[in-house]
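Our preliminary data section would be incomplete without showing what the modeling component actually yields. Below, a chain of 113 amino acids is followed by its predicted structure, encoded as tokens that our downstream tools consume directly.
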Amino acid sequence: MNDKMKVRLHNGLKESSIGFLLALVYIILKYFYWPDIFIWLAETVFVIFCTVLFFIRGYRKGYSITNFNQEMQKKREEMLNSRFSEDLRCYKCSSIIKPEDNSCPICGWTWKL
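Predicted structure:
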């Protein structure tokens, strides 16, 4: 996994949690600290905003993980087709995976979708 893929995966996971955290803060403030401060319009707009943000970012996060698996599959195919094979390392335990194996012999991790 190269640095660019690590950054993309980290950003996807970080962005997907923003909406969830905002909704959690709203619930804590609404029901435990300020029960009479919010009017129904502000509540509705805030909840809709948090929900949309959560689902949009969660949708993008799913694509980040799928792209990572596709990149690992491409790297494996390149390794099988290259004359001088490069070591393919497991994402979980960093052990070397042989070109003919479909998963890690130690932890069983696979890049198949």
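Strands lie at 88-89, 96-97. The chain has a mean pLDDT of 69. Preliminary results of this kind motivate Aim 1 of the renewal.
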